[in-house]
Design goal:
Layout lengths: L1 H34 L6 H32 L7 E4 L1 H17 L4 E6 L5 E4 H18 L5 E9 L2 E8 L9 H4 L19 H12 L3 E7 L2 E9 L10
Parallel strand pairs: 2-4
Antiparallel strand pairs: 1-3, 4-5, 5-7, 6-7
Length: 238
C-alpha cells in the first residue's frame, strides 16, 4: 500500500512538472517555426528572438526551483549562508521576469524602505523570489503595478511581493502552500500553474530558517518572506 502511495505521488509530481514546463516550451517551439519564414520582417524577427530568450530564461528559473525543491526533499540540498543585499536579488528577479509582466502591460517596482543585509543562501533566495514574482504576475490585473519591497519588522528582514488582482478566499488558505495546492483564481490564457511554486517557495524559505506568510488584501495578496538580519556586515557601505 505504501509503495502504491509513493508511485501515485511520483506520477503526480511528474505530471505537475510537465504541466509547468509545457507553456514556455510550446511558445519557444512556435516562435522558432515562425523564425524560419522567409518573409518575416526584421522587426518581428527581433521581437520573436526576445520572446524566445525570455521563455528560455523562465524555463531555467522554473527548473532551478524544481531541482532545489527536489534536493531539499531528498536531503541533498547544500545551503551556503552568506550576507546578501536582498534588494539586489529582487532587482535581478524583476529584470528576468519583466518581459513576462509586459504581456499584460504590468509594471514591476522594487522598493527598499530600510537598507539591510540578510543571511541567506543566494540560490535559494533567488528561487523563492522568482516563484513569488512569477505567481504575482499570473494573478495580477493587466496594467497594474506589482510591488517588491525590502523592509525590517520585529528585528527580522521582511521581503514582500504584492499582487493586485482577485484575492484568495479564506476557505482556500489551508491548501495554498500544499503540494499541488491550486486555488480558484483566474489566470490569463498564456499562463499555467500547478501549485508547485508556492509549495517550493515555502520549503526553501524554511530551509533558510525563515518563514513565508501571506496577508490578504481587498485588492490582492501580499506574500511575506521573513529572514534573519545580518548585523556584522553592511553591504550598502561597499
Amino acid at each position: 500500500m505504501r509503495d502504491e502511495g509513493i508511485t501515485r505521488h511520483s506520477q503526480q509530481l511528474l505530471a505537475g512538472i510537465a504541466h509547468e514546463l509545457k507553456t514556455p516550451l510550446t511558445l519557444i517551439s512556435g516562435l522558432s517555426a515562425e523564425l524560419q519564414e522567409p518573409t518575416l520582417a526584421s522587426r518581428q524577427f527581433q521581437q520573436y528572438v526576445q520572446r524566445i530568450q525570455f521563455s528560455s530564461d523562465r524555463l531555467i528559473g522554473l527548473v532551478d526551483s524544481i531541482l532545489r525543491g527536489y534536493e531539499l526533499e531528498q536531503e541533498m540540498l547544500e545551503l551556503h549562508f552568506e550576507p546578501i543585499n536582498a534588494e539586489l536579488i529582487m532587482d535581478e528577479v524583476a529584470h528576468e521576469l519583466e518581459p513576462h509582466a509586459k504581456k499584460q502591460a504590468q509594471l514591476l517596482a522594487v522598493r527598499s524602505k530600510q537598507k539591510s543585509t540578510i543571511i541567506a543562501d543566494r540560490g535559494c533566495l533567488h528561487a523563492v523570489l522568482f516563484n513569488l514574482l512569477d505567481n504575482a504576475i499570473k494573478y495580477s490585473n493587466p496594467e497594474s503595478t506589482i510591488e517588491m519591497e525590502a523592509r525590517c519588522r520585529s528585528g527580522k528582514a521582511q521581503l514582500v511581493v504584492k499582487d493586485y488582482g482577485a484575492g484568495i478566499k479564506k476557505s482556500e488558505l489551508k491548501k495554498l502552500f500544499s503540494q499541488f495546492g491550486r486555488v480558484q483564481r483566474p489566470v490569463p490564457q498564456w499562463a499555467s500553474t500547478t501549485g508547485l511554486g508556492l509549495y517550493i517557495a515555502r520549503q526553501l524559505t524554511e530551509a533558510m530558517n525563515g518563514t513565508l506568510d501571506l496577508s490578504r488584501r481587498r485588492n490582492g495578496t501580499s506574500f511575506l518572506v521573513n529572514l534573519q538580519l545580518s548585523h556584522q556586515l553592511s553591504l550598502f557601505e561597499l
